[in-house]
Amino acid sequence: MHSLLRLLSDGAFHSGEDLGNALGVSRSAVWKKLQQLQAETGIEIHKVRGRGYRLAQPLHLLDRPWLVERHKALGWAVQVHDSIDSTNAEAMRLAVVGEHIPALIVAEQQLAGRGRRGRRWVSPFAENLYYSLVLRIEGGMRQLEGLSLLVGLAVVKTLRAMGVPNAGLKWPNDILSGERKLAGVLLELTGDPADVCHVVIGVGINVNMRVAQDVDQAWTSMRLESGGDVDRNQVAALLSSELARHLAAHRQGGFEAFQDEWERLHLWQGEEVTLLAGSTALEGVVVGVDAVGALRLRVGREIRTFSGGELSLRLRKRLDPESRG
Fold first, then answer.
1. For residue 108, is pLDDT > 50?
2. I need a labelling partner for 77 at 20 to 30 A (CA). Which of 94, 147, 280, 298 fits?
């Protein structure tokens, strides 16, 4: 399937005979492979008599040799999958085996991609970046303080460097452009949290997605923000470079060294919000974050601190019917 996609990825017409010769199969076999490809990936393929086949839109496929070469200096192993349940799930499996770590897993498509609180992460084929990095952590949970916020910071810097100047942060681990979600971060832990463990850093970035039927919130993509197709290989490479630099600094000084910078890029800084924790809702004003990444919220005359994976923020102007125009 990957070889056929590479032949068609330029978006030009290719005859069945040429495709068959390139793959070493018959024209009828090409047609069957194209039908299978369309069914498995959802990619739209046009067939025109006398001209052949072409994709409805060109594809920028992940380039495994290029990615492997770009990550050699970081000492990271690289896996590139056509289709997988989720890159985070594969990273967790690698953590159990404990070999070839640090390891980066990327995929063209996820069949069971997920975000925070078990939400489904829509993962169309060859449109977005599905990226998971597994690391070995020694010294217990203190090494992870503020890590998810730090990863979000690296993602925002990557997006801004690649033509999305309005990308910003939303506590704890969403990346927005304006009021639309552009990317998300999901960290998962396995092993002994008091000693040696492994952390999986999962990042999902909407890169070239233009249409999505099943997303349950306002969203955007790098392509929609910048106005042109984006090479996901370049996004992955730059993100890895930013992550490596931020992780090294985090090991030396913790999240506190990034606290001020994170707050400058927090789109909801100073905003009136509702903090949701299960069925409990608390209203306040965002003051910032503390030295370990916990949210600082002004509630009445008191500044309170909150942390935890089940917490979520909402802008109060969105929840108040009288404020809607």
1. yes
2. 147
Sign of torsion over alpha carbons 213, 159, 142, 133: positive
The structural domains of the chain, ordered by start, are 2-55 (1.10.10.10), 64-263 (3.30.930.10), 268-323 (2.30.30.100)
199 strand-pairing partners: 135, 189
116 classed as catalytic: yes
Give the span between the Cα atoms of 150 and 235, in whole angstroms: 18
pTM for this model (two decimals)? 0.89
Is 27 part of the annotated catalytic residue set?
no
- Clarify whether 314 is annotated catalytic: yes
Show the tokens assigned to 302: 């008191």
147 close to 250: Cβ distance less than 8 angstroms: yes
For residue range 171-180, list pLDDT tens digits in order. Answer: 999 999 999 9
Distance (Å, whole) CA 29 – CA 85: 28
List 114, 181, 223, 232, catalytic entry: 181
**Per annotation, catalytic residue among 54, 116, 157, 223:** 116
Closest CA to 183 of 230, 222, 232: 222
Q: Which of 64, 296, 304, 314 is catalytic?
A: 314
195 vs 223, residue with greater confidence: 223
